[in-house]
Request: fold
Amino acid sequence: MEELVVISGKGGTGKTSIVASFATLAENAVLADCDVDAADLHLVLEPAVTHREEFSGGSQAAILSQHCIACGKCQELCRFDAISHDGPANGKVDKTYRVDPIACEGCGVCAHFCEEQAIEFAPVVNGELFVSETRRGSMVHAKLGVAAENSGKLVSLVRTQAKQLAEHESSKLIIVDGPPGIGCPVIASVTGASLVLVITEPTLSGEHDLQRVLQLASGFGIPAAVCVNKWDLNPSMAERIEDKARAAGAEIAGRVRYDTEVTTAQVQAQATVERRCQAADDIRDLWTNLKNIGSKHGLRI
Reply:
């Protein structure tokens, strides 16, 4: 089973549009949207959810006001300023202490040292995971809660579910829409992947972010390919980026020109290759080149 992960150094480079097109061009592939902080592949592929489950990525403290004696030990020990002295009265004291669930980092120190056992430390729901059917095959995706943590753990869960689904369906390829940047969610997305495709754009920030992403892929020993999206907006910068990518050991998989039909496709919940346009032709060439690059590394994309 091969796993192609499409990532970018920053958001908005067009990786989700390209992943949706790959889903259309691939045969019997399972899709995984690992951008759990801002998942949007479902906006194009319109999935029908067949299974959903809650995700708990950690625990959170909550003060049981009826047992609190307002000693203040919890507030003294909290290093995240998550505890305040403005809780309800309980017949013992006029004000108890209260935990701000947004500020709480789930370390559990307050619960451990509370002599009155007035602090509950229990698992908290951080988001949801979905298994869906789309017009282009099965997809695993997720949604992290507002201000929730542990996106890396949720990404790992999405990939695990996608692998199990691929085995069940005898699929030989998983296409992953990865998160932007180089943080924990990205690391969780690319670890153990077969091939990484980095989508960048012909700008100074695109050049800088690409270098960081390629360093990350190299650190994990994962073959990397690069695509410059909207290359024709700045051809000289596109060439400069490709030169630097080659110097970093990556292969150039292709270019995609700027095309307003891409936006039209998004508005109509279509993949770009489902429309007749020049960008669609570029993406088809990109897919062919990517399969050839994969074959050089013994992969069947």
In short: The chain has two domains: 2-46+135-296, 58-125. The mean pLDDT is 94.
